[in-house]
Each structure stands twice: as structure tokens, then as C-alpha cells.
Design brief:
- The protein is of the alpha/beta class and 262 residues long.
- It has nine helices and seven strands.
- The protein has one domain: Rossmann fold, CATH 3.40.50.
- It has helices spanning 2-19, 64-67, 87-98, 116-130, 141-144, 153-169, 194-209, 216-219, 234-252; strands at residues 52-53, 57-62, 105-110, 134-138, 173-177, 212-214, 253-254.
């Protein structure tokens, strides 16, 4: 039996050597799937450039509704965009967001309590200091609340005409606003009928002098006029900034050139 066992063991060794096995069997290699060729990539269209405005320096001139008064008046006057509540400040913010390739400057030259008499006297000096390309002019509400100036609306319109003539004579485009609606019964509201009469005269004068009319009275809802009956709420000033921006866009905005795909 011992001789038979040796013979069997020898045969097993011979078979193992013939099969090339020197250890336990190995696992088969995994099958690797080659990646699928996606083909040529489709180029993404370039981001279109922002629109541009044909001007970069804008002067907002007027009284407390340009200064941004929502409560008692403030001082001092400086040629900046003004208070965050004011429409010039909000207009500059809107312009900066839209015209990202440019630096748009809006100067706030509003003085609370000013009548067209005072405005006419300082207008030329402000134009010289700011050197704007466009002037946003809205004034006259304080005249309509004045005990004597309100008696002669034609003279109020005449002083506005003097300012329009001065700015256009220096090559500046004037955007002339009608004054906003006023809440009847408010402590600062003018006598009924004066606002419509004054705005009507402004429109006629603007047509003769080359000013662009911005009909704020028609575009600013009475619901955005505050409790005093005269000044807009802060939401009203935001709406006013949007009204002015629309007027500037209509006159000066240039759409970006279409992108040519190659």
C-alpha cells in the first residue's frame, strides 16, 4: 500500500507540472469596457454683452422731491447721488445694474423747499460744476403752495423755460417732468386744479423748446404719495427712478450687437 501511495503522489506532481500550476487557481481578469467616444463637443454660445447708454453723466435738478425728502428737510447740499431714499440714488443703482460695462454718474441737485425763483438763480452754477450730458428737471411744486407765486402759474412756467433754454444752449438734453399728483387734503398739497394747469403749460413749453416730456403725473400712482399729500413714499421714489430710467433708455440705450457664431 505504501508503494501505491507513492506512485499516486508522483503522478499528481507530474500532472501539476504539465498544467503549469504552481499554486491555487487565480480569478479571471475583469472585462474592461472602453469609454464611449462622445464625438466633437458643442461650443456654448458666448454671453451677450450688456446694453449701453449713450451718456454717462446725468444731473437731477429740482426741489425736495429730487432731494428725496420723505420727512423734514436735510442739509447740506452736495453733488453726489444723495440720500438712499431719493430717486437719483435709486436711478444710479438701477443704471449700474443694467449698464455693467459703464460707470453711470447721477448727481442729486435737489434742494428742499426751493421754488423756481431760487432754482433759476442757482441752475447755471450747478450745470457748470457737474457738466452733465442730460438734465432731469422737475420743479414747481413749492411755487404752487406759495401764497403769492401760485397766483401766477405762467411766470412759474416761464422760469422753468429759462432753465430749459440755459441747459439746451449748452448742448445738454433736458428731460422735463410734470410734477406728481397730490393728495387732496394733505397738509402740503396745492389747491385743486393748480397741478393740472401747471403740468399742461409745461408740456406746451417743452414742445417749443426741445425738452423731452416725462409725464410723471400720469405714471406715478396717487397711492405712492405719502400722508402729507405732496412727497412720494420711498416706494414712490423707486417708481420715479424707474420712470426716469425708461425715459433715458428710450433716448439713449443701444442694444448689444448680435453675436456671430463661427
Amino acid at each position: 500500500m505504501k508503494r501505491r501511495s507513492n506512485w499516486v503522489g508522483l503522478m499528481l506532481l507530474v500532472l501539476a507540472a504539465a498544467c503549469g500550476s504552481s499554486g491555487p487557481p487565480t480569478a479571471p481578469s475583469p472585462i474592461v469596457t472602453p469609454p464611449v467616444d462622445p464625438g466633437p463637443s458643442t461650443p456654448q454660445p458666448p454671453t451677450p454683452p450688456p446694453p449701453t447708454l449713450g451718456i454717462t453723466k446725468i444731473l437731477a435738478f429740482g426741489d425736495s422731491m429730487t432731494a428725496g425728502t420723505t420727512s423734514p428737510a436735510f442739509v447740506p447740499f452736495t453733488l453726489t447721488a444723495g440720500r438712499p431714499e431719493s430717486y437719483p440714488f435709486k436711478l444710479q443703482t438701477l443704471a449700474a445694474a443694467r449698464y455693467t460695462g459703464q460707470t453711470i454718474e447721477v448727481f442729486n441737485a435737489g434742494v428742499p423747499g426751493e421754488t423756481t425763483v431760487d432754482g433759476n438763480a442757482r441752475f447755471g452754477g450747478v450745470l457748470s460744476e457737474s457738466k452733465p450730458q442730460a438734465v432731469l428737471l422737475m420743479e414747481g411744486a413749492n411755487d404752487l403752495n406759495h401764497p403769492t407765486l401760485s397766483l401766477d402759474i405762467t411766470s412759474v412756467t416761464g422760469r422753468m423755460e429759462d432753465m430749459v433754454r440755459l441747459a439746451t444752449g449748452r448742448g445738454m438734453q433736458v428731460f422735463l417732468a410734470t410734477i406728481p399728483p397730490q393728495r387732496v387734503g394733505g397738509r402740503n398739497a396745492a389747491a385743486p386744479g393748480l397741478v393740472d394747469k401747471y403740468n399742461g403749460q409745461l408740456k406746451v413749453m417743452a414742445g417749443k423748446k426741445g425738452a423731452i416730456v416725462v409725464d410723471v403725473n400720469a405714471l406715478l400712482p396717487l397711492s405712492l404719495i405719502g400722508q402729507d399729500g405732496l412727497h412720494p413714499t420711498e416706494s414712490g421714489y423707486q417708481k420715479l427712478a424707474e420712470i426716469w430710467l425708461d425715459a433715458l433708455k428710450a433716448k439713449y440705450e443701444t442694444a448689444p450687437a448680435p453675436t456671430v457664431r463661427r
